[in-house]
């Protein structure tokens, strides 16, 4: 392509874009001309030539990977997560159109609130035969224990979402209402953040409405509801955990809204109040942003097989001691068959026509409607009456004769279980694929939040489109992709709407950190331990590789034996790897152990597995980590995946690269955490895990090195210094004179060396003093073990260990490091029992959500 042809590349793409007939196109009007509100967007994006566009594509892919934006796919063989997919061409809509949608959907949300209030209240619709009893009492979304539960301000729905599609005449239709645990808000916000990184100038100059004022109103509403039971409410976001398909979004919202991400195991109910189990005891929770479906939140009154909920939560709500967004049982209005009755309800209960129509729906539980569905099966979608019952959705035009006949038999046999819906010819929007713009059908999920003045719509949304043109169901589970929605400001609108409103609060300044959930502390602790395990093992392997490279031809290789003892399985003897006469290694026998400790997935202690453990532990505390720190987690996954189960020789260049990459990323992670994490209790548990694990590694290696009857040669001392990255420190003090006593002093007793044993124990003692148990005045097991460690190393010297008589030296070294090793293990167990065991000072909880 020539330079001239690259100048306005996107404009050229748009010039070649053609909308399909028979449907509304968002970009081109009926005359094939770009719609007015697309002008600024196409102008700014059209300035990009092909290299600059491709560079932004690579930037987008990198941002998605580094930020860990994923979507868990349940139907994958391993139920794995896949990277989020987003198109760089936005959907542009005029501000007036969104304002019209806001008014229409506000009416709809108000109507749904009225229906929920009646169904869970006086039930006049049932008593007056205005609603069929089957749609209520056979509906799994109707929760009998919630009857009579009146939510704050009489509104079951505080956050409302709707899936919209545009018909051929340009009018919007509602395909479904989402109020149970509406997902997508976090992904919509993340899409905007991504677009602001790759097209900052285009967003500003195109005058796109900001999403932040909506986010602020959303937070204000949640906090105002929780404030009814406390002036300083404690709010948590209830999640089903990392296996939930939208866990990234839940973690993203918790981190950006400042709420605690909690699973069912983190919560408990006591005296009809909801509490979170924290390391400092239990703390009352006043508000829950619920991302788990209602039936699963309380195994005591709802589903008794649920492991996601909190026993007693329903009664806590009944006593008005906690507020939920949205209220339990809200999913009742998501029933597809209910769409058929909304126009009638609106006319008779609001005295108005339904401003934004639903997709035409016929419930087969009615005789005439059933007949219509059966006669027009080729033109309809047939869905289960209740979404929660599962069951397949049948696309009439694609059914074979046999499938159609089987469906007809089922409808005639169980008519109340099915409803038919019209197949809309959905609008199309430009999607950039294979180097050009192509029209693709789409759905847009919009979000609204209630306040005292009505309903406020987010000026944007989550736009989704299918993986290919022949796919009728738009679903992220089936490979769909997303894009950002840009609402173009009208020229006469208030410019101040761009700014984020300031929220005035009367809350005092707080610097306490006692709200750390026990589970989060546990995961941070083990994250620190896995990091140190990986680093120690990588340094061990690098030391062994360097030694073998340099000393393979030496008369003896006995000096590397203590390092090998750290990685061979406990049931293997080192004697089988060493020739007893020449003290040379049997390399053919040694190498399988070395590669197994690096790359074997079957070996739980391998370096590859430790990298995966780091990534998994980090994923559970993602909301506690900065974006830059999280990038290292992604790096660990990529390194682990790229080398997993590889068959390499220990002398291959790839092994050296693997070890260097691992150590580099571990160092970056530790540095990012050091610079970005506040010195809270979460930081303390992360560092305690690191210090315990590093002290264990030092104790084990020094015990193996010096508690032997026949001393090793000075090459062992050099390798120990290399392993501990302390060679420069040693040589600055002692030049080239090697002495085991001096090496032991540097690696064990030097308080200024961050890789010495005394440094780890001193740091541990300081960190333990910041934990809640230390402020209670009474000494417990943690304090006792810490004091034993500190006293032992403080009263010991290199000279007292490295005695002249071999057996005395062997015993003193063995006992000192053996006792230290045992104390460290006991200390780890004591911390686990006191803070992570979830016994007396604990709680229980979990949630669920999905993008349909």
Question: What is the structure about, briefly put?
Answer:
With 852 residues, this protein is an alpha+beta fold. The protein is 44% helix and 12% strand. The radius of gyration is 32 Å and the shape is elongated.
From the structure above, extract its key features:
852 residues, seven-stranded mixed sheet, 44% helix, disordered N terminus, alpha+beta, four-stranded parallel sheet
- DSSP helix fraction: 40-55%
Summing up helix and strand content along with how strands pair, one would put the structural category as: alpha+beta
- The helix tally amounts to 29
| Unreliable stretches covering 5 or more consecutive residues | 1-7, 495-505, 839-852
Radius of gyration equals 32 Å
Overall morphology: elongated
Q: What percent of residues are in strands?
A: 5-15%
Distance between the termini: 41 Å
Descriptive notes:
This protein is α+β, with helices and mostly antiparallel strands and about 850 residues long. Among the domains are: about 5-85, no CATH class; about 520-840, no CATH class. It contains 29 helices and 22 strands. Strands 3, 4, 5, 19, 20, 21 and 22 form a seven-stranded mixed β-sheet that branches. Strand 1 and strand 2 form a beta hairpin. The protein is elongated. It starts with a helix and ends in a 16-residue tail after the last helix.
């Amino acid at each position: 392509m020539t330079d001239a042809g690259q100048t306005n590349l996107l404009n050229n793409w748009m010039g070649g874009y053609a909308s399909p007939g028979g449907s509304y196109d968002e970009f081109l009007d009926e005359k094939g001309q770009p719609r007015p509100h697309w002008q600024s967007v196409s102008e700014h994006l059209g300035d990009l030539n092909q290299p600059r566009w491709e560079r932004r594509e690579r930037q987008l892919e990198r941002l998605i990977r580094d930020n860990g934006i994923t979507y868990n796919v349940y139907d994958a063989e391993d139920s794995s997560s896949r990277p989020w997919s987003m198109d760089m061409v936005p959907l542009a809509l005029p501000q007036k159109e969104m304002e019209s949608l806001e008014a229409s959907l506000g009416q709809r949300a108000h109507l749904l609130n009225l229906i929920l209030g009646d169904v869970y209240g006086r039930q006049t619709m049932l008593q007056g035969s205005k609603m069929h009893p089957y749609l209520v009492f056979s509906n799994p979304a109707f929760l009998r224990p919630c009857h009579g539960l009146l939510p704050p301000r009489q509104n079951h729905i505080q956050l409302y979402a709707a899936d919209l599609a545009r018909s051929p005449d340009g009018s919007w239709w509602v395909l479904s209402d989402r109020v149970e645990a509406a997902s997508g808000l976090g992904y919509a916000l993340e899409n905007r953040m991504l677009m602001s990184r790759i097209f900052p100038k285009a967003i500003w100059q195109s005058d796109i409405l900001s999403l932040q004022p909506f986010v602020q109103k959303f937070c204000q509403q949640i906090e105002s509801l929780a404030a009814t039971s406390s002036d300083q409410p404690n709010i948590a976001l209830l999640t089903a955990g990392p296996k939930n398909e939208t866990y990234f979004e839940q973690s993203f919202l918790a981190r950006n809204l400042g709420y605690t991400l909690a699973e069912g195991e983190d919560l408990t109910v006591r005296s009809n109040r909801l509490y979170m189990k924290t390391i400092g005891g239990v703390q009352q929770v006043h508000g829950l942003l619920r991302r788990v479906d209602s039936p699963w939140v309380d195994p005591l009154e709802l589903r008794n097989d649920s492991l996601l909920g909190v026993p007693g939560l329903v009664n806590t709500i009944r006593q008005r001691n906690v507020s939920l967004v949205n209220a339990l049982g809200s999913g009742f209005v998501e029933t597809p068959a209910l769409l058929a009755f909304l126009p009638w309800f609106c006319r008779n209960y609001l005295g108005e026509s339904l401003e934004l129509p639903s997709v035409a729906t016929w419930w087969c539980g009615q005789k005439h409607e059933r007949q219509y569905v059966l006669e027009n099966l080729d033109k309809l979608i047939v869905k289960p009456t209740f979404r929660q019952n599962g069951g397949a959705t049948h696309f009439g035009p694609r059914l074979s004769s046999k499938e159609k006949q089987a469906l007809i038999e089922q409808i005639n046999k169980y008519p109340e279980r099915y409803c038919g819906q019209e197949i809309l010819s959905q609008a199309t929007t430009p999607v950039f694929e294979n180097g050009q713009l192509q029209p693709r059908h789409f759905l847009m999920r919009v979000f609204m939040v209630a306040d005292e003045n009505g309903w406020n719509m987010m000026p944007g949304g989550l736009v989704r489109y299918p993986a290919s043109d022949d796919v009728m169901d738009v679903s992220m589970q089936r490979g769909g992709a997303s894009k950002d929605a840009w609402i173009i400001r009208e020229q006469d609108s208030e410019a101040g709407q761009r700014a984020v409103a300031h929220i005035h609060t009367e809350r005092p300044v707080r610097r306490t950190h006692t709200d750390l959930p026990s589970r989060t502390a546990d995961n941070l602790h083990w994250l620190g331990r896995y990091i140190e395990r990986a680093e120690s093992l990588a340094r061990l392997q690098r030391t062994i590789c360097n030694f073998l490279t340099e000393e393979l031809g030496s008369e003896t290789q006995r000096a590397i034996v203590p390092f090998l003892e750290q990685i061979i399985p406990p049931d293997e003897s080192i004697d089988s790897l060493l020739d007893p006469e020449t003290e040379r290694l049997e390399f053919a026998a040694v190498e399988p152990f070395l590669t197994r400790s690096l790359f074997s997935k079957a070996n739980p202690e391998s370096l590859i597995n430790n990298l995966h453990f780091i990534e998994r532990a980090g994923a559970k505390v993602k909301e506690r980590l900065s974006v830059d720190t999280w990038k290292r987690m992604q790096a660990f996954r990529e390194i682990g995946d790229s080398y997993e189960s590889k068959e390499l020789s220990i002398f291959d260049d790839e092994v050296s690269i693997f070890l260097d990459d691992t150590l580099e990323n571990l160092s970056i992670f530790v540095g990012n955490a050091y610079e970005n994490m506040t010195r809270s209790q979460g930081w303390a548990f992360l560092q305690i895990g690191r210090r315990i694990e590093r002290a264990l590694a030092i104790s084990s290696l020094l015990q193996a090195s010096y508690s032997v009857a026949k001393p090793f040669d000075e090459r062992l001392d050099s390798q120990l210094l290399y392993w501990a990255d302390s060679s420069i420190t040693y040589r600055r003090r002692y030049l080239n004179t090697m002495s085991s006593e001096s090496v032991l002093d540097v690696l064990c007793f030097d308080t200024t060396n961050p890789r010495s044993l005394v440094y780890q124990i001193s740091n541990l003692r300081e960190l333990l003093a910041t934990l809640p148990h230390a402020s209670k005045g009474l000494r417990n097991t943690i304090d006792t073990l810490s004091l034993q460690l500190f006293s032992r190393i403080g009263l010991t010297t290199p000279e007292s260990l490295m005695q002249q008589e071999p057996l005395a030296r062997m015993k003193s070294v063995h006992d000192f490091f053996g006792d230290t090793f045992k104390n460290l293990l006991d200390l780890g167990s004591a911390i686990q029992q006191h803070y992570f065991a979830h016994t007396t000072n604990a709680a229980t909880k979990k949630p669920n959500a999905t993008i349909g």
